[in-house]
Amino acid sequence: QVQVVESGGGLVQPGGSLRLSCAASRSIFRRYTMGWYRQAPGSQRELVAAVTTNGSPNYADSVKGRFTISRDKAKNTVYLQMNNLKPEDTAAYYCNTIPNSSWGQGTQVTVSS
Questions:
Q1: Pick from 7, 22, 51, 53: most CB atoms within 10 A?
Q2: How confident is the model over 83-98, as pLDDT tens digits?
Q3: CB contact at 8 A, 53 and 31
């Protein structure tokens, strides 16, 4: 049973910004650390950012200083603000609990001029 829905992806030029949203079921949102993952063609899925239930964030080195993860308890939603996007950020982005539960459909981010 899919319990997350991702949105907010799109096509953006290098240096641009996007904000991704992940609407989660209340039952998992309140109990778990939430993470944003990405998977580029031909690559393994990787964790890029995570936020604990009390709001403490962690980031992969590749996005540190450019991406910001946050969670809104009132909306059961996790956000990923992505600034100064680079072509290598192009991927399908997914959110999930940590440890993982079922995966959503993801949202595509393409960074290209």
A1: 22
A2: 999 999 999 999 999 9
A3: yes
